[in-house]
Design goal:
- There is one protein chain.
- The protein is globular, with a radius of gyration of 19 Å.
- It is α+β, with helices and mostly antiparallel strands and 303 residues long.
- It has two domains: 175 residues, Ribosomal Protein S5, domain 2 (2-Layer Sandwich), CATH 3.30.230.10; 118 residues, Alpha-Beta Plaits (2-Layer Sandwich).
């Protein structure tokens, strides 16, 4: 039996702009996504056989589904269906979960991306990054970025992959950009947010403030932290905060700490993050907010 173990890294949004609602019900977006050093541990084992593929999934988190309701399971099913007509055998996946569930950190998408990368190697498929991203898009809008971000860690060509990207369309059109180098405090309030509900509640025509993504990209290239932070914004934040007061409370706790840092919500929430170039500032924020939310982490961005 062959085995691969990978880290499935979470992401944050340095910005989210929603441009329009599409006829298919999705929204066109323009956003900057950044991989962070918070990860699930994924172990994938493959035993070659002549019988049709048998996929099994296990996890150390009791609330996590282990069937087709899990994106990692569906990723294995998808890649074997599309690219393995002449293969078979047993695939066993185990997920050691560290990324909180329903946190806006793309934990499920990260797990699916890791499984696609692992099976690409174990099954000797030699799929290109574009082919892996295309498979990822069939699973969810965040999966292509997770595929690309993890590809950068796995030493794919630098012109193809980065741990930071400008995402357009519904999130699948990715342009690699220079990553952010920063300390990061993440804190998830004890509430569950429905991404679908937040997007449906957003009135695009009433958005008053938007991120400046071009300036943000320039700031990342120039390593200008002030330019980066002044350009960041999440248009979903006001909607989510109006529905869940805990988000605003978490932001307030982080913002009241003295120091040079930026506080913002990631995704559709509920996780709030603070970025700072100064470790001591990040540590102060971490020590303060972890008394309020159990799911609080002090990590760094990935380059």
């Amino acid at each position: 039996m062959k085995r691969i173990e990978l880290k499935a890294y979470a992401k944050i949004n340095l910005s989210i702009d929603v441009l329009r609602r599409r006829s298919d019900g999705y929204h066109d977006v323009s956003m900057i996504m950044q991989l962070i050093n918070l990860f699930d541990e994924i172990k994938v084992e493959y035993k070659e056989g002549k019988e049709p593929f048998e996929i099994s999934l296990s996890t150390d988190m009791k609330d996590l589904p282990i069937d087709k309701n899990n994106l990692a399971y569906r990723a294995a099913e998808l890649i074997t269906t599309y690219y393995c007509d002449d293969k078979g055998g047993k695939i066993e996946i185990h997920i050691a979960k560290k990324i909180p569930l329903a946190a806006g950190l793309a934990g499920g998408s990260a797990d699916a991306a890791a499984v696609l990368h692992a099976l690409n190697k174990l099954l000797n498929l030699e799929l290109s990054l574009d082919q892996l991203k295309e498979l990822g898009m069939k699973l969810g809008a965040d999966v292509p970025f997770c595929v690309m971000g993890q590809a950068a860690i796995l030493d794919f060509p630098k012109d193809q992959a980065s741990t930071c990207a400008h995402a357009e369309g519904i999130g699948e059109l990715l342009t690699p950009i220079k990553p952010l180098e920063s300390w990061l405090v993440l804190s998830k309030p004890p509430v569950n947010v429905s991404t679908k509900d937040i997007y449906q509640s957003l009135n695009v025509s009433e958005i008053k403030k938007r991120p400046d993504n071009l300036s943000l990209i320039d700031g990342l290239k120039e390593e200008n932290f002030e330019k980066i932070t002044s350009s960041m914004f999440n248009v979903l934040e006001e909607v989510s905060e109006s529905k869940f007061g805990e988000i605003g409370k978490t932001k307030d706790i982080m913002a009241r700490i003295k120091g040079d840092h930026k506080v913002m919500m990631t995704g559709s929430g509920p996780t709030v993050f603070a970025i700072s170039k100064d470790y001591l500032t990040a540590e102060k924020i971490f020590n303060e907010v972890r008394e309020y939310n159990k799911d609080t982490f002090l990590v760094n961005t990935l380059n």
